[in-house]
Specification:
single chain; 329 residues; alpha/beta; eight-stranded mixed sheet; 45% helix; 12% strand
Amino acid sequence: MGWALLCVGLLLALYTLLRHGLRSAPRPRARPALRGRTAIVTGGSSGIGAATALELARCGARVILATRNALRGEAAASRIRTETGNEEVRFMHLDLASLHSVRAFASTFLRQEPHLHLLINNAGVSAGGTTEDGFSLPFQVNHLGHFLLTQLLLERLRSCGPSRVVIVASSAHCAGRLRPESLGRPPPGLFSAFQDYCDSKLANVLHARELATREQDTQVTCYAVHPGFVNTALFRHAPLWLKPLLLPLAWLLFLDPSEGAQVVLDCATRDGLEPLSGRYFTDSGPQQPWPQGRDDRLARALWESSERLVGLGGDKVGPSPATSTAPAQ
C-alpha cells in the first residue's frame, strides 16, 4: 500500500510539473472600470463565457448572461453576483439553435435594457446535428445565430457608441472552406462535423472583417478572437475513440477558461483598439488570419448569403426544414 501511495504521489507531482511547465498561460491584465456600461455575453454560464462575464462584472459592468439553459444561467448569474458584489448581473434566455429564440431575445433585451456597449459573441458547439431551422448545428450556433443577433442589436450598439462586438473565433478557421451557395448544409465526408466547425470559425473571422468595413463611419468596432487552446466543455462532443487521448492532453496542456478569456477581455476593454477594427487577435495581439480569412470578396458574399438565410434583406433561402437534433448548449 505504501509503495502504491508513493507512486500515486509521484505521478501527481509529475503531472503538476508538466502542466505548469509546458503550458504558456497569458498573464492577467489590468482592466478599466466599466460602471455604467452594459455587456451581453452569449454562452455566459460556463467556460470562456463565464470567465469573461465574471471579469466584466468585477469591473462594474451590467452583464447579461445570454444562455440556453435557465438553471445553469441563473446559477452562473447568482455565483457572479456573489463573487463580485455586483448586483447588475442577470440571465436572459437565448438559444442560438433557434432563429425564433434569437429574435425573441433581441426583442426582450431592446424593450428592457436601454443601453448596450459590449456584445461578446462567445457561445459555440462542435457537435454535428441539424437545427429546427434546417441548418447544420455548428454553423447556425457559431455563425448564423450570432450574425442575426448582431444585426438585431446593431442600432442599439450604434446609439451607445463607442461600442464593441467581440466574436470568439478559432485558429481552426485555417481549415475552413466556405461556399456561399451551400451555406448552412453539413459538408460531405467522414469528418463532416469537424469540417463544419472549421467552416463556422472561418465565418466568424470574415463576419468581423465585413462588419468592421460596414461600420467604419460609426462608433461600432469589431474584433475576431482566437482565445488559445482552452479546456472547456466544447470537447464533450469529441468522438468517443478520441477522448482517451484528447482529454488528458486538454487537462495537461490547454489553458483554463479564465486564461483563455484574457484576449477576449483585451478586445472588449483595451483602449486604442479602434483603428484595428475587423482584425483577428490572439494572445500575442493582432495577427494575420489564414488567407481565406482575408478574402474580402468571400466576406461580402458570406454577409449577403447570411442575410438571406436568417431572413434579413430579402426572402429566406436555405436548406429544407429538418427535424432538430440539437444537443444542449
